[in-house]
Amino acid sequence: MLLAIQQEKEPLINNCPVCGESLGDSDQLNNMIHMTLCFDEGTGSQTMTGGFLTDKQASYGWMFKLSEWAHFSSYDVGLNSGSSASHIVVFDRKKQRLVEERIDGKIVLSMRAIYQSKVGLGIMDKGAKELLQSISEKQGRKMNSFESAKDIPKFIDFFKDQINVADVKYPLEHFKTFNEFFIRELKPGARPIVCPECDNVAVCAADSRLMAFQTAEDSLRFWIKGRKFSIQGLLGREGDHDAFTGGTMVIFRLAPQDYHRFHFPVSGTVERFTQIPGALYTVNPIAVNSKYCNVFTENKRTVSIISTKDFGKVAFVAIGATMVGSITFTKEEGDRIRKGDEFGYFSFGGSTVICIFEKDAIEIDEDLLAKSARSIETLVSVGMKLGVSIKKQTQMQKPDIKNLALES
């Protein structure tokens, strides 16, 4: 206890005892999480699978937190432990540090009650799915009313550290309804696209929290706990299952405060769209990490197939969620597109985009894979680098047979 109190007042540890990295004097929250993950890797066990943490919990002292996190994962505990927590810890790729994503504590408690218990999912089977649909439709109509515009300033204030109004294309008085602000466009150049002329470089499709996995099987080990999840189930009966068997999967989770227009990660041609009806579960990690439901394969979604020169076929799945009134696409079948082009938008609510690449088609950036393997989402923006084409790399590495012959 004395050591913990001392660490809070005047830190005794200035460097991480595992990796040796210097610890910031004024960033206790980040330091505690950093050391927890390092100690975890040293034991070879996965202790913190993307957990919740409040400012109050952070003030308990680093020694207590290390001990607590070593025994349970916050997403996997029930209502008895950590149910009052109201923040998700994610890694900000731009700032290169761990940050907290703000969520109302009452909402967290409700989601835990519904999605992480047999009783809650039993209620779902007895009509709650229809209730979620009804509530979402009602909320969608409300957010399209002129009266809803008065909620815009309150929304911005609640997420004041996570919404950059300076990036928005139009002034706030331009938006006549809340939903008009929610599907806001950004100023040209607000989201620069990495290597715009290089089609062999894929980019992030949305402002979101990203998880990337070499295979769907990896995602089941580290993130998705639903027992029935599969690529086949995600793409539906008409999907190109064979083309994506063993393929790489990238999940982009959009929170309500995010810019809600999604963009193409690759250049190519929009081959087709397939609408798949379904439920409107939340896409929050509490539900995704629940063993009692299969959010991605049960929710309403639209599957589009993009044909590319460098990556083969890419499946782009836009998934509806609780409070999402609709998914709107701004491109049509047959359209030629460039990476970074706008593809569509989600109306009010948080939602998810999942991209499936063919097997051995893309090499995802190592930092994204490393964080995902530790069950930590990475905060990314549209246009950030996602990975490079393996096919293109292979072609570049092939020797010039003609020149070799001449040299010999």
From TrEMBL:
Any single Pfam family the record assigns to this protein: PS_Dcarbxylase
Transmembrane segments: none
Pathway(s) annotated for this protein in UniProt: Phospholipid metabolism; phosphatidylethanolamine biosynthesis; phosphatidylethanolamine from CDP-diacylglycerol: step 2/2; Lipid metabolism
Cofactor(s) this protein requires: pyruvate
Keywords: Decarboxylase, Lipid biosynthesis, Lipid metabolism, Lyase, Membrane, Phospholipid biosynthesis, Phospholipid metabolism, Pyruvate, Zymogen
Catalytic activity reported: a 1,2-diacyl-sn-glycero-3-phospho-L-serine + H(+) = a 1,2-diacyl-sn-glycero-3-phosphoethanolamine + CO2
Residues the record marks as site: Cleavage (non-hydrolytic): G350, S351
The record's free-text note on cofactor binding: Binds 1 pyruvoyl group covalently per subunit.
Record-listed E.C. numbers: 4.1.1.65
Post-translational modification: Is synthesized initially as an inactive proenzyme. Formation of the active enzyme involves a self-maturation process in which the active site pyruvoyl group is generated from an internal serine residue via an autocatalytic post-translational modification. Two non-identical subunits are generated from the proenzyme in this reaction, and the pyruvate is formed at the N-terminus of the alpha chain, which is derived from the carboxyl end of the proenzyme.
Gene Ontology BP terms: phosphatidylethanolamine biosynthetic process; protein autoprocessing
Highest taxon listed in the record's lineage: Eukaryota
Modified residues (Pyruvic acid (Ser)): S351
Family assignment from sequence similarity: Belongs to the phosphatidylserine decarboxylase family. PSD-B subfamily. Eukaryotic type II sub-subfamily.
Subunit text: Heterodimer of a large membrane-associated beta subunit and a small pyruvoyl-containing alpha subunit.
Protein task: Catalyzes the formation of phosphatidylethanolamine (PtdEtn) from phosphatidylserine (PtdSer). Plays a central role in phospholipid metabolism and in the interorganelle trafficking of phosphatidylserine.
The protein's name: Phosphatidylserine decarboxylase proenzyme 2
Organism, scientific name: Heracleum sosnowskyi
Designated gene of the protein: PSD2
